[in-house]
Each structure stands twice: as C-alpha cells, then as structure tokens.
Fold:
Amino acid sequence: MASLEVSGSPPRSRRELEVRSTLQDKYSVLLPTYNERENLPLIVWLLVKSFSESGINYEIIIIDDGSPDGTRDVAEQLEKIYGSDRILLRPREKKLGLGTAYIHGMKHATGNYIIIMDADLSHHPKFIPEFIRKQKEGNFDIVSGTRYKGNGGVYGWDLKRKIIRLYRKEVLEKLIEKCVSKGYVFQMEMIVRARQLNYTIGEVPISFVDRVYGESKLGGNEIVSFLRGLLTLFATT
Amino acid sequence: MLPLVGGRRLNLVRFSFLLLRGALLSFLAVIMTKLAQWLWGLAILGSTWAALTTGALGLELPLSCQEVLWPLPAYLLVSAGCYALGTVGYRVATFHDCEDAARELQSQIQEARADLARRGLRF
Structure:
C-alpha cells in the first residue's frame, strides 16, 4: 500500500484530502472537575478505551478547581500512567466557574475539535466515536447528545442538566465570547447563540445513567432554577 | 409549591418587571428578543381581535363569524394548555429506561478499577 505524505505536497485527489484531514484531526476533551476523586480514574479509563479502540487521536485536559478531596493527586497518577501527551493537567486555585474553566482549558487544547462533558460518569464515553462519525457525516459545527430521540434514555431521575457536546474549536471560541449567562444556563445559551450565528447542529441519541441511583435527587429547586434560566434566555436572546 | 412570602414575592415582581423592561428596550432597539417578538405578535393579534369584536372598524360581520370570534382567545389558550400538558405527559410516559446501560456501566467500572490498580493507581 502506498504511503501517504501527511504534510508537504498538495493533495492529488479529493479522497486523499479527506483521508489526510481525518489523519490530522485531534479531539481535546475538556474535563472540569471538582471533588471527583472517585469518578475521575473511571472516566479517564473509559475515554482512553473508546479512543484507542477507534484509533482516534485525542488528549484529555483536566481542569481541577482546587478540589479538597485529592482529585488533583489522582489526576497526577493518571498522567503518569497514560503519559503527559494524553493527559494534560491544567488546575486552578479555587472554584472559578464552568465558563472560565472551558476558556482556561481551550487555551491549552491542541486539538481542532473540543468535547465537553462531565467527569461524573453521567455520560458514557462510548458515544464519542458516534459523535465524531455524526460530525463527519453532516459536517456539523456542533454535535449534541440527546436523551429524547432515537434510543436515547435515562436510568435514574437526576433532573440536573448534564450536557455532552462536540464542537469545532473555532466555533466554541466564538460562542464562549458571545455568551453572558452563568452556570448551566450558559450551556443552554450556547445553543441559542449557535442558532443565531447559523451554525449547524447535529444530535446523537445517548443514554444517561445515574450511577448512584437510589438516592432521591428530585428537587423543586432544580425546576425553579431551570425555568428561571429559560425565561431569562427568552427575554435576552 | 414554594410559599410566596414577603421577600420571594418581591423578587418575583422584580424579576417580571426586569423581563418586561428588557422586552420593551429590545423592541425599541430593533434587535428583537424572543419575548419582544411574542409580545409584538400578541399585540397585533389582540388589537385585531378587539377591533373586530367591538365593531370599532364599523364592519358588519355575519353573526356566525362573531359567535366564533368572540371566545376565540379563550379557546386558543385552553387548547395550547392541553397540547402542552399532553406533550409533556406523552414524553414522560414514553421516556426510554436504560437498564442495560446501567448494568454495562457497573461491569465496566469493575474492569476499570482492576486494570488501573494493575497499572499502579492508588485509589
């Protein structure tokens, strides 16, 4: 089989261009953590497994906000095990918020795609190759996981909004610049802004598993703050 | 429901006031937020309905038309409410329950812990 030059000469065909661009794609996973000492090794193990099995080039950026439970220590051990080219530690002194965690993480990301997810095993990394496939299929700017379509669903009733998304790096940079909300309303606002800027959005059905199912997490507070967030977006975008 | 006492009621009033003020400002600034668009749409439809039902435009509509037009806003409101409740109910009832995903996750957690311990991770 003829070897492909990855850099230098111009592509001889459209097929070669596609293959070359696939070879050069790198996916940076941003993992903001706070008190995730137990879950962090598991999520990293699952991510490494999914990426290696699919032959995808990746890096995992762990942004720990000064967790008191020793998350940083576990992260350092993972860095030793998997290598500092795969696990990047970019911690911060204290809890500074999700939006700034993403900005901080992106500064150090060397991939051309960014994946944002929670470190608490609410979403299984096995879906990530599916996200990547979907993105290539429709040339989407953003691919979001949904529990409501296809064979998506839940196990356990955690009302908190968990989001797993794949973005093109430049799209995420642009959106973060434009968003003004805080907390998870900020994640909702990103999609609203993305639509306004005419970015294309794809969806992949995912399952959400509440790992510690059995404890009641239903709170009226979550419903109220969700509705507040929704109304604020309705009135400001 | 959360009891609306003193401070909470004031916050609710303040919040609603802020939303409406924002809507008016966005409307004046011509960059219409969704709220401003809705209010604008409702204002147009509402004034049309009012004009037709009070005969302010001097039009003589046939009685059958008037009989339908008069309660129309109420009918639409109730229908919208029923549709909303129905959709929510249907979606909740047909929401997929992923038991095998939960089982798979549990077994992979065991696998992960064993593999990581082998590689030297101290939990």
